[in-house]
Design brief:
- Helices cover 59% and strands 10% of the residues.
- The chain has eleven helices and three strands; from the N terminus they run H-H-H-H-H-H-H-H-H-H-E-E-E-H.
- Strands 1-2-3 form a three-stranded antiparallel beta sheet.
- Strand 2 (207-214) and strand 3 form a beta hairpin.
- Helix 4 crosses helix 5, helix 4 (57-78) packs across helix 8 (128-146) and helix 6 (97-106) crosses helix 9 (148-173).
């Protein structure tokens, strides 16, 4: 087990962009449950229960809620034209375990975790679950130490902007099929139909062509390296056509 968390030099706080007033909150956020029994037996026999080392699980619970709230707020401001469905799906992508793990790795959070010997031996510092959970705990620690504004600013810099930049076109394009479906539903029309129009290229570099049909009429064709990507691009073209028609009429 790592006996002390290396926060005295402020390296982690510098990467996080936030300096804690209550250092014990950061220590708790970085303490995995596997470390607690060893920490308590190592030198806390005479300590009162209130100051014994505690793990980060309760902070993780709070951090999850703070993330959901602030991710929702951020997306509402960044994409005022998006529907509830689009916002929900994009929020889910931003706050999922993979996204949180990447944010934790950018912060080199794993270097600062307090782990039990068993967890250390099995590579706990590199486990996605541990990194994502600890990131949520750190978010909660920032919230408790500095309030919602501090948590908002930290998340904007270390997660939200990075996630949108890394996912870029995927976030912007990922819900075109949903947007088209919602538009048609609002007009009382049947769902769009997607038809395979063809494919080209060698097996390792296929290009798929997908047509989208609405009310039995051809609307557009999309191409992509996967069928899903081609469908999204076809949906985007159809959506653009329908919106132009709405604007004219």
């Amino acid at each position: 087990m790592q006996e002390t968390i290396r926060i005295a030099d402020g390296a982690f706080e510098e990467r996080l962009g936030y300096k804690f007033s209550a250092k014990e909150l950061l220590e708790r956020a970085l303490t995995h449950s596997s470390a607690v029994p060893e920490l308590r037996s190592a030198g806390a026999e005479e300590a009162v229960a209130a100051v014994l080392p505690r793990d980060n699980e309760r902070l993780e619970f709070l951090g999850d809620a703070v993330l959901e709230l602030l991710a929702s707020e951020y997306l509402l401001g960044a994409f005022p034209e998006w529907s509830e469905g689009q916002l929900s799906k994009s929020r889910a992508r931003i706050v999922n375990a993979s996204s949180l793990e990447m944010a934790a790795r950018r912060l080199r959070l794993g270097e600062h975790l307090r782990l039990g010997r068993g967890e250390e031996k099995t590579g706990g510092r590199e486990k996605q679950t541990l990194l994502a959970d600890a990131f949520e705990a750190v978010v909660a620690a920032v919230y408790l130490d500095g309030g919602l504004g501090a948590a908002r600013e930290v998340l904007r810099r270390v997660l939200f902007e990075q996630a949108l930049e890394e996912r870029g076109e995927r976030i912007a394009e990922s819900d075109r099929k949903s947007a088209l479906q919602e538009l048609l539903q609002g007009q009382g029309r049947a769902p769009a139909e997607y038809r395979m129009a063809g494919e080209s290229g060698p097996d390792h570099q296929k290009v798929f062509q997908i047509e989208v049909w609405i009310d039995g009429e051809y609307m557009a064709t999309g191409e992509g390296s996967t069928k899903k990507e081609a469908e999204q691009r076809a949906a985007r073209s159809a959506l653009d056509q329908l919106k132009r028609a709405q604007a004219k009429g």
